[in-house]
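Q: How do we represent a protein-ligand complex in a form that can be generated token by token?
A: Start from the inputs.
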Amino acid sequence: MTETATLDVEASEPSELGYRSFRLGEFAFSRDEYFVSLTWPTGRHVMSADAFLRALQRDVAWDFFYGIINFDGVLGTVNHYGTVDMFAGRYNDAYRKAELDHVETFETPLIRETFKAMLADWTNEGFDPFASPEETGSAFGPKHGDNIDAITRRRVTAQRMVAVAGDEGLRTDDNGHPVNRQFADVPQDEPEIHAEEGFEDALASFNLFAYLSRSSVTWNPSVVSVCKDSLYCPTTEEYILPVIHGNDRVEWFVQLSDEIYWDVEDRDSGAKRAKVIMKAGDVASMPADIRHQGYAPKRSMLLVWENGSGKIPELISSGKLPSTAVQF
Ligand code: PHB
Ligand code: FE
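Then emit the structure tokens for the protein with fe (iii) ion bound:
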């Protein structure tokens, strides 16, 4: 965090429990042993501290991601790629009808630094917001220590592809990436390359299953290959996606192993639209007008395929592109 950025963050002195309170515009955030509480001019809201921190961790690590990150059915952010809206009740029919919803727009650096400071102050020693519940300690209690290494992990973003010379490297025991307990059966052999003479430097390959079996985090897509705007962002999933993602573009899911259940809702009202059960080998295209949350009963591998073009949100919102990939 730079010094100027720190100055912009509005934080109180620590409470008796050791936690600071934060302000962002007219939103006020505080935490106690179990809960995060929020107020805005027309309302208030409470979330469990562990669920809040898991959602906050993703919003910070993904720099507000594509479109909307709902922390739950009330609270969240909208990325306008330069500014970010923070909202309460904006995408919730009941709050809208009761006129209790509230939205404020912030320059990205201010909300980014405020969220980073909140995440750092409210994450206790032993709690890792990226880990599955089985693999982390508790988020609760009075403030004790911190977990800065866990919350500032470097995000994998390949420039071309993992294993290309000079790009993201492979994961090994020696570089701190042991095979996860639930992927002990995943073969670890790497492909062999037999290149024509003169083409040795032009070919690269890696075992994606082995690579994913060594991920220590859950629900955290990382870019492993890039072809123009086409981004392969596989991830390993266990328990519940800590955010409800409202996309501003179509995205594709390829279920690489095991199962994930998806709850799909209307992006703007939250009305239920579908339940999708994805088994290994299934492919789904999520429309641009929905929001979704995934449930993985067992650690599973999911390929999230994104189109990173900056032009898509405007093409969809102006009606020039449909919000579904296929029309039947
Ligand atoms: C998504 O919102 O599409 C998403 C986010 C994180 C994941 C998987 C999918 O790990
Ligand atoms: Fe999504």
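The longest strand covers residues 290-307. Helices lie at 3-8, 49-61, 93-97, 108-122, 148-151, 208-213, 312-317.
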